[in-house]
Amino acid sequence: MSVxxxxxxxxxxxxxxxxxxxVSKGVSGFHEMFSLFQDPGFExxxxxxxxAENHCGSVYSRxxxxxxxxxxxxxxxxxxxxxxxxxxxxPEKMPEWNTHVEFCNVLVHITENINIVHYGNGxxxxxxxxxxxxxxxxxxxxxxxxxxxxxxxxxxxxxxxxRVRAHINLGGGKFRKHPExxxxxIVEIMHCIDFRGMVPKSVIYSVMGKMMLKDIEEHQIHAxxxxxxxxxx
Length: 233
Description:
Elements: E1 2-5, E2 8-11, H1 20-38, E3 49-53, E4 57-64, E5 67-76, H2 80-89, E6 103-111, E7 114-121, E8 130-141, E9 144-151, E10 164-165, E11 167-178, E12 181-194, H3 201-232
């Protein structure tokens, strides 16, 4: 099986054919995420509602067929290449800097730009610990990097254990150089998640803005650390 996405074709190795169904689901999720980023009203957030904003960034939301999707926008003080190397090549290090993430493991590398990760977080506000199994896909278009995340079930996926397994209906990111400073990156992160469990969606939706602002702050602190390490080498 080969995967053609945004004019890039990748071949799934024969020994990983058991993941073909999961890859197809992940590709579908990428298309859905990409279409939201490409929507004519997206840049102006036409049809979106502002959920939260502070000096770090902003969070907007809108309804889609899966439920409510949230999108955070912010700037980090590190260049795009360094940021994406960390984002794509080193997800296992996320618990070192993101207090919401307790563990993150890459279950399988399917191609250079497609993998499956398993990660979990501890309690956040009134939401108890959750874990996620996500198909990640990455593409670059005209210097802009897009990543997607979509919950999948695949061979070798761990059982949920003592956490509730949440479902990522739609997720992804858009990363681009800041037009006024090549050493900075504009980041937009999108999430539509069914956290499952006993907490009503309305309650979770009411705090998602605050949760994502906290994530923004931690991403910005981490980016400064990445820049410092880069400059010291």
